[in-house]
Structures are given as structure tokens and as C-alpha cells.
Amino acid sequence: MALLEIKKLGISFGGLRAVDDLNMELNEGSLVGLIGPNGAGKTTVFNMLTGVYTPTNGRILLDGKSIVGKKPNEICDAGIARTFQNIRLFDKMTVLDNVKVALNSHYSYSLFESFTHLGSYRKKELEMNEKAMEILKVFDLDGQADYMATNLPYGKQRKLEIARALATNPRILLLDEPAAGMNPAETQELMHTIELVRSKFHVTILLIEHDMKLVSGICEYLYVLNFGTLLVHGKPEEVLNDPKVITAYLGDEEEEEGGSAHGNA
Question: 74-86 pLDDT, tens per residue?
């Protein structure tokens, strides 16, 4: 059984069919890309997977159990975490505290303990600090733990957002355009980070991305959306050279620049 199964998934907004009859599978430990032109419905799929939107029809099964209708926090607790195309950090909090916020769901103490700092408060705060620093060290952010998140360079803010998502201890990590706004050097470092995250945290990854060098460099399998429907799926080398993909996804660039399916889109 696949870890995540999407069956005949669809959603409508008024008369607009944003996603229609989508079928996908994610096996445990896989690194899969969801690609397609702007407006294809990719982020809408992420929003359905994380409970932001409720599908009009279809099923989403996590480990064989339906998560349709669950709230975002319930889906996060069940094991699905995400990042966003536009970075959403707590800018006025430290790097360390951004990660600790995500750890809070795994640690609890009474209101009295939180006010008085008595009882189990100090022990649990120490445990959270240690765990948060362990995660930050993986991303080489432990040296900036006391920095305000807003003061980090753009590439490190991206890393921090992924670190915060991992602090929820997910089984599946959804990355929404993680390379957006990055220069080539930052993108290359991000590729290494994503591979490291998968091996270190034993997490399954589904990512939306427009950078085809990144997609072809790390993804093992691709799904291509076009106008909310599944156009094609398969191994990256097959998908990125499929005439339907070149026409629908990279067609404009092909005509204007004479490029290949392995450029940026």
C-alpha cells in the first residue's frame, strides 16, 4: 500500500473546475515532483492535502485512512507538513523560537506551570531547546539560533522554513516551490539539503517546482498537471521529453528560445 493515495480527487470553485479526477500515489521514502504551468492547480492540490480546502469529490488516504474533512492541525498531527511558495516565518521571533513553535504540539504543561515556570516547565523547555538545536544543526543554522528570522539571508530563510516543518515530525513533507527566488548557487545547495532531509529524517517528499534542473536532478518520479487534470506521469527523463509536456508546460519557451525541457520554466 502506498503511504499517500489520491483517488479521483477534484474541487470546484463556483463554476470553475480547478482540479479534476486526479490520481496519484506516494510510496514511503520517495521524492516526487508535481509540475505544470502556472494556474495548473498544483498549489490547490497541496491545499487539499493539508486541509486548507475540502475536495468536492475524491479521496485522500494517508496510510489507508481518509484525511478528507480533517482540519489543517489534525492533518499536521497525522503526519503531513508543508512549506509555502511565499516564505511564512515568524519574522520578529528568533530562528530557534521559529522551530520551537513547531515543537510545541509534542510538549505540554499546565497553564500554572507556564506562568510560574515550575513543575515540568523547565525540563520540557530544555528538551525543546535541545531538539530545536539538533534540527537547526542539520541545516547549518545553529550558529544563527539567536538571530531574528527576518535578518537571515533569503536562502537560509528557506532552510528555516523547511526546518520548522520538520519539527512537526512529519511522514510526508510538501515543498511548494522551494527554489523560488534563489540564485543558481542557492538552488544547488537546496538540492543537497532536500536529499539530506529525506535521508536524515526518513521523510517522503512531494515538491512543486518550476526549476527543471532541480526537478530532474533530485526527483525520482513526476506528475504533470495541466488545467487541473493529470497530463502525464512517469520517470523524469521520460516526462520531461514527452511532447505533450513540452507543448503544454514549456511550449512558449521552446518556441521563443528554442530551449529544451531541461531548462527553467
Answer: 999 999 999 998 8
